[in-house]
Amino acid sequence: MTLDEYAIEYGTDKASTHHNYTAIYERVFSPVRESTKGLLEIGIGGVNYKGVAGSSLRMWASYFSNAQVVGVDIDPSADKDYGDRVSVVIGDQTRRSTLDKALGLLPSVDIIVDDGAHINNLTVATFEYLWPRLRPGGIYVIEDTVCVGELRLGNTRAQTEQLVLTLLRGLEVNGRIMAKGNAADFYKINPDYVLNDYERWVESVELYRGVYVIRKREK
């Protein structure tokens, strides 16, 4: 079955019947479908969720048949049995204790999907903590980015725009490195040069309507 077929079966709003994120995810994840061993999703859906709680966890577990799937949510009502290879951690997505507990349940941190609070400062804080813990070659997804300007959430576009600019600068490698004469080949940069985490590890940044996909370098 395709990812979208699983999404429709389990009732997640990622399906073509709603946001249609599965059209993006099929392209992004199909090459790593068999090799993915661990996926973390922030946001399960609790008592106030209008959709089907845990539906995307079931979708991921069915699609990535060799993976352990862990969901994080702040709402205790989200703590349910969502099937084999699915675990739940209840807690705040910006608490190290919550995230460390979730990461500890995965054999490998291959994919991270943030479908959590959709509050920009929380999204950025979560990314900053989890990015170094994503394995080399892994994929980080920030979902529902159409919310970045919603004032009812306390969001301003500048908060997420700054993160994107930081990632792009890291991707291209900043000016002080370029001035060393290494513009032609990233991999020949002398290890003495001080690279920040994004300069060293960002492989690509893909921006779609509602979804950002950030890939980490293999080495």
TrEMBL record:
Keywords, alphabetical: Methyltransferase, Plasmid, Transferase
Lineage top rank: taxon: Bacteria
InterPro entries tied to this protein: SAM-dependent_MTases_sf (IPR029063)
UniProt GO MF annotations: methyltransferase activity
GO biological process, one term: methylation
The keyword Transferase appears for this protein: yes
CDD domains xref list: AdoMet_MTases
Protein's name in the database: Class I SAM-dependent methyltransferase
Taxonomic source organism: Rhizobium sullae
